[in-house]
């Protein structure tokens, strides 16, 4: 404990020759247990050789974003009392990337800038609405019964049941077309599996969506539902034909339906006519209040997303860009994209490059031009269903 009773920060490494900058890591989601203090593959030697002090925010199990924000601010406050710290950069992955963005909006946080890697930067309501779209669509079209879509049952039980049904659905041509349709409205990538070449045929692209479907769509909900106090996702009023048209995957879905002589229009009509899921307005409000970025950045923020990520999908970045623009803070935001499948698989060079770009912005007031060959183009297609109205009706 510090002299004033506050918790001392968790130091990962102290450089032999400090450059004055502390890097504060926010961990991601821990299912049933606290996540590790440091991510796998952290280039400790490369960072300390450059003079960075490395600190971490102790994580907690579950969707602990409120705890994460408070712990991050406390860690930064403690680091600011050190003589060898003149600048604090907060960075995180996945849920920790969302915490980093939230800290960038906090007043008088003592943070100079943030880096969000593979972060759920549009917030949990939008992210889980998107997952619900895909889960609900495949359940309706496949006539799945007794599948919990809203997180009342334990997550492992929900996922196991969905996995078995998904395997059965994938066995037929029409089932595969329907999984592709559900994946399209949920914006699942067609290149999702690390270590595989980019798929080019409709069948190969669909297999990549199916491989990630259960993990991405039946994402952990039970803990989030408990914290919200009820159902915080809904699909009342959603036009799934319109979502397919905007998804960028329309050609893929049409090709798969045509190859098995399935009736895409009839399936879209079934989705239009099926009973919907409504949310508990108070639960939606509580989830928004926990952490939904407003776009009102107070310090520079750099976000990095892999185009083949499925948790969150890359359109989270597009939604975050839009709310930042609406808040008039676009000059504080830079976004980078890596053309690669997988979740939170950034290379050490990409982390080092992100730090260098953010420090350039802090030193000069301008974002540098993206390094050639390191970053890919932003996504050309896609959407994120709005997370409002905030009461979910």
Automatic annotation (TrEMBL):
Keywords: Hydrolase. One of its GO terms (molecular function) is hydrolase activity. SUPFAM superfamilies: alpha/beta-Hydrolases. Residues 363-393 are annotated as: Disordered. Residues 369-380 have a biased composition (Pro residues). This is Alpha/beta hydrolase. It comes from Pseudonocardia zijingensis.
């Amino acid at each position: 404990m510090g002299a004033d009773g506050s918790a001392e920060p968790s130091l990962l490494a102290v450089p032999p020759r400090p450059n004055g900058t502390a890097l504060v890591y926010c961990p991601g989601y821990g299912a049933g247990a606290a996540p590790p203090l440091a991510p796998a593959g952290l280039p400790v030697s490369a960072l300390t050789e450059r003079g960075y002090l490395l600190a971490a925010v102790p994580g907690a199990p579950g969707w602990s974003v409120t705890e994460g924000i408070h712990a991050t601010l406390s860690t930064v406050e403690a680091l600011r009392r050190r003589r060898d710290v003149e600048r604090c950069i907060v960075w995180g992955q996945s849920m920790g990337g969302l915490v980093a963005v939230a800290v960038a909006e906090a007043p008088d946080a003592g943070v100079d800038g943030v880096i969000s890697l593979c972060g759920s930067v549009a917030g949990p309501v939008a992210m889980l609405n998107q997952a619900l779209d895909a889960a609900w669509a495949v359940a309706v079209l496949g006539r799945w019964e007794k599948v919990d879509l809203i997180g009342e049952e334990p997550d492992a039980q929900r996922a196991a049941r969905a996995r078995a049904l998904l395997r059965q659905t994938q066995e037929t041509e029409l089932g595969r077309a329907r999984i592709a349709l559900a994946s399209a409205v949920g914006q699942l990538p067609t290149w999702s599996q690390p270590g595989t070449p980019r798929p080019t045929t409709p069948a190969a692209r669909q297999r990549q969506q199916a491989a990630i479907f259960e993990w991405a769509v039946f994402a952990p909900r039970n803990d989030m539902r408990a914290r919200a106090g009820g159902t915080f996702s809904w699909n009342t009023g959603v036009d799934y034909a319109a979502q397919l048209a905007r998804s960028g995957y329309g050609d893929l879905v049409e090709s798969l339906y045509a190859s098995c002589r399935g009736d895409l229009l009839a399936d879209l009509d079934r989705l239009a006519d099926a009973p919907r899921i409504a949310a508990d307005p108070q639960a939606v409000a509580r989830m928004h209040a926990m952490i939904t970025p407003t776009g009102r950045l107070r310090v520079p923020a750099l976000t990095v997303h892999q185009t083949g990520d499925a948790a969150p999908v890359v359109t989270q970045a597009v939604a975050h860009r839009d709310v930042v623009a609406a808040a008039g803070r676009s000059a504080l935001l830079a976004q980078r994209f890596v053309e690669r499948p997988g979740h939170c698989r950034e290379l050490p060079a990409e982390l080092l490059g992100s730090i260098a770009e953010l420090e350039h912005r802090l030193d000069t007031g301008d974002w540098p031009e993206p390094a050639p060959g390191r970053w890919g183009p932003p996504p050309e297609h896609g959407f994120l269903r709005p997370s409002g109205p905030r009461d979910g009706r």
